[in-house]
Amino acid sequence: ESDTASEISFQCNKHKKSPSVGSHSSDMASVSSVSGSVLSVYSGDFGSVDAQGTVEFALDYDEKNREFQVHVSQCKDLAVVDEKKGRSDPYVKTYLLPDKARMGKRKTSVKKRTVNPIYNEVLRYKIEKMVLLIQKLNLSVWHNDPLGRNSFLGEIEVDLASWDWSNRKLNWYPLKPRSLSAVNGVDHRGVMNLSIKYVPPGSLGPKNPPSGEVHIWVKDVKDLLQLRPSGVDSFVKCYVLPDTSKKSYQKTRVIKRDTNPVFNHTIVYDGFHTEDLKDACVELTVWDHEKLTNHFLGGIRLGLGTGLSYGISVDWMDSTQEEVAFWQEMMSAANEWIEGWLPLRSL
């Protein structure tokens, strides 16, 4: 399987254990940085210049080729980034939201030394019309920096569900500061219903279990992003970080054509000492299954959210308040199932 997320790990030889027969073992031998963040819509320099000026563009949908087209014509009166040289090197970038992981970005060429660039370029997306109508178009203008620190010059966001598709003419639109959706991240990704339980070593009798166990019961997910008219073919992956080995990796079956899939799948990880719970993190991610590439839909991370694992700073120990409270309740209630609904997010 190929997924649109990267995995980077390094060894620290900490708490190495042998797997138990008949269970899925969590080997705490490696500390890993798992990034579920695919393409960032909002990476760059905000606030260095004030958004100003206008952009001229037109939208169209080619029914025959099933293609969404953004005709970017030109911009006027953009902000000047390099005041000493009196120059900006602008380009236009587009995303379809909230599905940035699947569709990726499109961008025009860079026009140098101008605040009135002329592009006359068409940015194209192969996408079904029904799917397009649940998206938003984010069109932003940027100054291209040779060192990679591009500067934000303004943007406009279009709700495609309410767009007048009979309007194919070029029109001017004022560029605005960074939008609310940029501040709050992508739209609602759905919620996961699950239960978790910690069984301390020896709590069920002498040497039963021989080591601590974390039980994860993935019940169902509601309101997943619908990537195709037929729905979405989803499955859930699970790791207990910092371990990203094959022994840590578990997944559910694929539920086809359903934005509200019921998995009813239980995963058991053994090899836990009670003190491991403060340094470990259960990462559950939901993916759309396709033959060539699986697409990230959203996920949760259950842990203490301290930013540290075994004394090492890691970016995946970033649990939200809800996720932290869920994990803490499990730690304080041994041998009891803790149930709840948690919102999926971009990791």
Word description of this protein:
This is Synaptotagmin-like protein 2. Residues 51-173, 188-317 form the C2 domain. Keywords: Cell membrane, Exocytosis, Membrane, Repeat. It comes from Colius striatus. Residues 1-12 have a biased composition (Polar residues). With 347 residues, this protein is mainly β. The protein folds into two domains: 47-182, Immunoglobulin-like (Sandwich), CATH 2.60.40.150; 190-344, Immunoglobulin-like, CATH 2.60.40.150. It has four helices and 21 strands. It has helices at residues 100-103, 129-132, 180-184, 321-332, and strands spanning 6-11, 24-25, 30-35, 54-62, 67-76, 90-97, 105-107, 118-126, 136-143, 151-159, 171-174, 191-199, 212-222, 234-241, 250-251, 262-272, 281-288, 295-302, 308-309, 312-313, 338-343. Strands 2-16-13-12-21 form a five-stranded mixed beta sheet, covered by helices on one side. Strands 8-5-4-11 form a four-stranded antiparallel beta sheet, with no helix packed on it. Strands 7-6-9-10 form a four-stranded antiparallel beta sheet, with no helix packed on it. A hairpin with an 8-residue loop joins strand 14 (234-241) and strand 15 (250-251). The chain is elongated. It starts with 5 loop residues before the first strand and ends with a strand. Mean pLDDT is 80; it is low at 1-44 and 180-186.
